[in-house]
Amino acid sequence: MADLVLSRGLINGEWIEAIDGKYVDVINPSTGQVITSVPDMGEKESEAAVMAAYNAFQDWRSTTAKYRAGLMKKWFDLIVEHADQLAKLLTTEQGKPYKEAYGEVLYGASFIEWFAEEAKRVYGDVIPAANPHNRYMTMKQPIGVVTAITPWNFPVAMITRKVGPALAAGCTVVIKPGEDTPLCALAMAKLAELAGIPNGVINVVTTARPSVVGNVLCSHPLVRKVSFTGSTAVGKLILRQAADTVKKVSLELGGNAPFIVFDDADIDKAVLGAVISKYRNAGQTCVCTNRFYIHEKVYDEFMDKFTRAVQALSIGDGLHDGTDIGPLINQKAMDKVSALVTTAIEQGATLVLGGECSEYGRQFYKPTILADVTENMAIAHEELFGPIATVFRFRDEEDVIRRANDTPYGLAAYFYTRDHAKVWRMSEALEYGILGINEGIISTEVAPFGGVKESGSGREGSKYGIDDYLEIKYLCHGI
């Protein structure tokens, strides 16, 4: 088994330190202990990584799809072989329970496998000509150097969801992982190296100065595509930085997901979906439910069963058996969650459960339920990113559609009903890129992931996920 705890960045096949020798500690959020330190890279290293990717692109783009697919399948096999090791590393630096981390590793690996297969399906077209003296064709070519800026909450899967289609298309990549979770990115890059992926095709820049590094990676003229997952505020900044060189930009940004339970729903199934869609990764996912809209006829039944299910969740270190809820990523996240709950209660919300730090540790927040929440409260308009469920009542379909859509975000939404006609009405009316219908887990490599409105642009995964890494070239051939 490879040693996957690495403490250097990767540029052009070399594992290097920062030019100025600076390092930044990587902290285990469960224990507060330092795992290791990684280079605190800056502008010069970022420029070197872009140049390495650009130089590698000249050869990588000319390789066959079959060749690239073969290397990617070797990478996939190595990820699966090291799944236990990767999952433990993921839990150690990010905090999520081991069972979730292991699931993420396999989920992340699925994108490498999927896009290895898709590499051989990048088809052009022959177009019927408008006159007898011409022939029209299209071909698809790799866009070039790609910047992949990934978040801390899914430090394996967010990399493979971007790097997989990039490599399959023939692009090269510079990865800037989340500042709190660089170790998974380095481990994944090491496995790619062992799989035989050439030097410079994948580069990893670690840093505690994201604005400095991000500015280079989003504005450098040799970068032709930026793929970012993170906050809406930073996504808007990236759009501005990429504008001067007219880069192609894919953004997977914030969310404010509604979870709607109608009076004809299977309540037990809805509760199961509610718990997993809200409390997975301690609520730290962009598709986590923020707002629960429960029909007044089933409100009491749902709340009773939901509260008992949440009470049964176990808080603890993600490496300990039986843990359901791990820590929040850092103290800043704790402060935000605590302030949101306090303000909501001051504004009239009813605390049903939780609402305080856990005795387990300073970065553990108890699973929380707030009832009697209204849209006049600040918490109704925030992306919570913590284990907080806010619960609203509603009376009719038209009203809940209006309230669910009353947000600048449009990433994911969930609803539960047994009425098939209502399924179609809701599916067409809800302004979201992803819908979970009688289902609380929605992510898969075979379906498109992405949002509308201020939740972003572009899609990741599925047959559509490779499109943003390709340019379509039109050939007009006179004969």
How would you describe the overall organization of this protein?
The chain is an alpha/beta fold and 479 residues long. It folds into 2 domains: 9-253 and 455-478, 3-Layer(aba) Sandwich (Aldehyde Dehydrogenase, Chain A, domain 1), CATH 3.40.605.10; 257-437, Aldehyde Dehydrogenase, Chain A, domain 2 (3-Layer(aba) Sandwich). The chain has 13 helices and 20 strands. Helix 2 (65-81) runs antiparallel to helix 5 (157-169), helix 3 crosses helix 4 (98-118) and helix 4 (98-118) runs parallel beside helix 5. The chain starts with 8 loop residues before the first strand and ends with a strand.
Spell out the key features of this protein:
479 residues; Aldehyde Dehydrogenase, Chain A, domain 1; Aldehyde Dehydrogenase, Chain A, domain 2; 2 domains; seven-stranded mixed beta sheet; six-stranded mixed beta sheet
Q: Can you give me a brief rundown of this structure?
A:
The protein is α/β, with parallel strands linked by helices. It has 2 domains: 9-253 and 455-478, Aldehyde Dehydrogenase, Chain A, domain 1 (3-Layer(aba) Sandwich); 257-437, Aldehyde Dehydrogenase, Chain A, domain 2 (3-Layer(aba) Sandwich), CATH 3.40.309.
